[in-house]
Amino acid sequence: MADDAEKPSRDYRATIFLPDTPFPMRAGLPQKEPQILQRWAEMDLYHAMRRARQADGRPLFVLHDGPPYANGAIHIGHSLQKTLKDFVVRSRFALGYDVDYLPGWDCHGLPIEWKVEEELRAKGRRKDEVSKAEFRARCRAYAEHWIGVQMEGFKRLGVIGDWEHRYSTMDYASEAAIVAEFHKFVASGQLYRGSKPVMWSPVERTALADAEVEYHDHVSPTIWVKFPVVEGSSAARNASVVIWTTTPWTLPANRAISYNPDIAYAVYEVEAMEAGLAFEPWARRGDRLILAERLAPDVMAAAKVAQYRRLEAIDCEGMVCAHPFAGLDRHYGFPVPLLAGEHVTEDAGTGFVHTAPGHGADDYAVWLAHGHREIPDTVDPDGAYYPHVALFAGLKVLETEGKKAGRFGAANDAVIGKLVEAGKLLARGRIEHTYPHSWRSKAPVIFRNTPQWFIRIDEPLDDAVHKGRTLRETALESIDATAFFPEAGRNRIRAMVGGRPDWLVSRQRAWGSPLAMFVDKETGQPLNDPDVNRRIVEAIETEGADAWFTRAPSAFLGNRDPARYEKVEDILDVWFDSGATHTFVLEGRANTRWPADLYLEGSDQHRGWFQSSLLESSGTRGRAPYEAVLTHGFTVTEAGEKMSKSLGNAVEPMEVIKQSGAEILRLWAALVDYTEDQKIGKTILQTTADAYRKLRNTIRYLLGALGGFAEAERLGIEHMPSLERFILHRLWELDGQVRRAYETYAFQDVSHALLAFCQDELSALFFDVRRDALYCDRPDSLRRRAVRTVIDAVFERLTVWLSPLLPFTMEEAWTTRFPDAGSNCLRVFPETPAGWRNDAEGERWAKVQKVTAVVNGALEIERREKRIRASLEAAPRVSIAAPALLAAFDGLDPAEVFRTSGASLAAGDGPAGAVRLPEVTGVAVEPQLAPGCKCARCWRVLPEVAAPRFLCVRCEDAVDAFDAANPEARVTA
Asked: What is the pLDDT of residues 501-527, one digit of tens each?
């Protein structure tokens, strides 16, 4: 390379066409996003998008919003879910749909009641000192406040929808519609009142449905208890059946013992106890114990029995025992029969199950199956024994007040103490196991017998809706007809619906939609009178659900005698509320339809909203209210831990927005696999911000390169070089990928594909190769026109393809280039010409890039060894053994492809000392310096460059053209 001691006769910087754009490198999202939101609000963006699609006759798409609970500021889970919904809404608009999305809120239920009770306690008042009307008014005001707070948070995330007409389950019209749906179940005979054990929360004083219960690890006492045999075969004489339980407090309610006829049982006699114990065991030498043969060793070990012998096998049929407390109080003098039951196993315990029909579903079922009907009531709504329960009256099973609320009370220890006193305790211990807890209070729940209202699941209904099918069958058929994203969701909800019990719909609380009906005191059946029901619904529609609680029965009953009817004042399960939202959100509103195209919520809603909506709609309309269901996982810390404010490991979305902008949260949501649990934290957010900056710089480069681009400059594909045809081919491929991904809600596939395209094919290839042409070719050169035409096509597509995911940035980019063209959000995906498809160019550039990787590796060594400073100082010689790789360069300038000043290609293996890469066989590179002088304008080193202008031939032509067009700008030495 020549020594450039001589200087050019002119400064050529003014003749170079450098990118120029006001689009800043630093996003300033926390400041920029509110400005864009304001513009969207002023133009009423969501409705403008709907009007535009409707004017074009576009098809309708309905996303029904699963209502978040109106309690507290938005958290990261809200952010993920609402952002995913916004991805759906915006992408469907971009795909050309008219999208109906009405945001809503779930407002009834215990969490709000608790908060209001806390507010009352802070003022020295108790809930029972406040009228139901005042209490409900306070709950309504509380929910309304948080609706406003959450709505602003969702808007700040960039979520669009019909916010002005938002729905809530506490709106008067909503409450009326919910009650009207409840009346349909009454009219169809699907509702009944039953006394059975249900999951009961003493802390909340209400029954809970399956969807309101979650399971946590819990340590419980375990006891082995002896029930003396009073009737049975001679083998059972003077023996005791041993049961094992983790709920000692249920023993006062024991009425039977269950066994399984398929299990082998035997009588065992204790011969010796373990020696050297620090305590005296309760088992005694000579005790005769009836046990499952497989479990006898475990029981003896627990009882500290050192030696025992098997006496003989025993048949349990017809056997009767005495209650272990029979000797302490005559209240327990009833017989305790042994009942055959398939639920009994020999996996653990003794092979027998203590059966308290008022405190367990299996217990209840086996009790009824053997012809028994009376269900004992032993525990009151507060979790304490009723006064009539001998030995234990008033003792708490669970504490419900103060700091000990939610902890087990004195009942367990009291029961164990009485077993010791009666001589019926064989052994005791502790076990850690999963135990049901209320998902709201996090306190343990108990099974408790109580009269409740249920919707039948398994009774065939001979009506137009079910056509002889049961509600369960109807629901299962609907699941089979629904699309699930991911597909695994189908099996999950199918298993839950297939195995669930009847739907418990009554709750003993104040804040909710009422079971607004009357019960005939003579028959015990609900009153099904259309006129009464109409008056109830009309009153609620006018005054809200409060009307049911404040008006006298006569206001609804008309000519009927109020004295004959019981007014039910329970409230409905809140899942019934939200499960019925489809009726007033999708039916009766303009420009929407039933059923919805999509329901989208977290995977926990297979047992919650998805299921309650399915059952409600199947029970009243014979099918699901949705065509498809999409579920996402939960958001966890970077370490994979559950987030908790108490642990201080929660990511607060509004803090992220304040520091980095909503766009960073949106990009995070677009990059993760939402079908699994997603991790988030400082490191992940920083990585996301880095990815955003790279993408933003790509958009900025596009804008800068398009400065002054006019339609007259556009070039047809038939005149374009190979590289431009390849980029257009990639746009054609991406168009199909992006459309398919959005149509199947695979947002991760969109973000990863487009980010990779920007990084690997735009920045690392197209921009890098064509930078010289873009900056230094004369404006009217075919090559430069081709570059800018393709960049225009890239910009047009990227800004709309990414708009559903990054609407703020794409809006900023679009309006920077086209300030008077309207919002980018109004655009639809442009059609990509089929003529852009060019598989041959795709194959060619895949081969070219393999060779380029080896050249880049060789040049990097030269830079590291300081033999060159930049690739333009090189003119490598490249040997290519594979004919197909060599042929890929036909018609290409290898120096331009390699970003060097010169290059030569030759067939063959190349010399031994050439640079090679193990992953690319058959390519060898000999780095060489480019001969000649450096062009003062483009910096290529070429033999043709000489004093005084120090320009290459191309640059001389470009400068002359520039000077002719700008005579006043010409500067000479």
From this structure: 889 899 888 899 999 999 999 888 999
